[in-house]
Amino acid sequence: MKLLVSLLLMSGLVNAQTTPDYAKETRWAEQVEDGLMDGDVVWLKANNHEFMSIYTPSETDTQKTAIIVHGLGVHPDWQQVIQPLRVALTTQGFNTLSIQMPVLDNEAHSGAYRSVFDQADQRIQAAVDYLQKNDLVADVLVAHSLGSVMSTHYLANYPHPFKRFVGVGMPSDNVDYLPKLSIPVLDLYGDQDIESVLTSVKSRAQAAKGNNDYTQIMVGADHFFNDKDDVLIDSVGAWLK
Fold first, then answer.
1. Which N-terminal stretch is annotated as signal sequence (predicted)?
2. Quick check: 198 and 172 in contact, CB under 8 A?
3. Can you give the residue ranges of every domain in the chain?
4. What pTM was computed for the model?
5. What contacts 110, CB < 8 A, 6 or more positions away?
6. What's the pLDDT tens digit per position in 141-169?
7. Looking at domain 42-104+112-240, what is its CATH homologous superfamily?
8. pLDDT band at 106; cut points 50, 70, 90
């Protein structure tokens, strides 16, 4: 009996730790809606929870859409990497749908986010479903940093319609999932990137050795492409062409 009670208590603790910080997501949503310059807020639902996304139509008539996934603890209009890509890709033949991923409290390290990967999967799937219901095509999945790990986790474990994947600043955890990806992959990183990205360059390439359409490119930038938006946009755009 004591063992059963202990297990139940531990289970409750795990469940508590795997609940995203919805209050933080709400604060992000309010800030984004107040300052949104391009695109429209679209509310999606996964795991019985509504979450924010931003849909921005292409400048050309197309069904092709890029779903964009941000990194650790931020939001779908984050000024570094995410906002530049979600807007710029609309000038390159894509609609974009940038989605809010689960966030934890400010003290949570990247490893703690593994506990919400299943919920992240469901949010990406909800975005795919939204596009399909609106006669749009989920053509490419674009992700940054921790968002790239969430994205490769999804791509490795679920049937999906994506034809291409772009990972920007992919940390070492991607090594667990890259072997299962068969679609074309762009692994883009900076020569001044964070340690987890730079020390796993070879291991990521080794993990993806079975994928003939895996491309690894290093450019002159840091992890967040500070003052290098043009490099980011041009590199991703050139590969997508």
1. 1-16
2. no
3. 42-104+112-240
4. 0.91
5. 72, 146, 149, 171, 173
6. 999 999 999 999 999 999 999 999 999 99
7. Alpha/Beta hydrolase fold, catalytic domain (3.40.50.1820)
8. confident
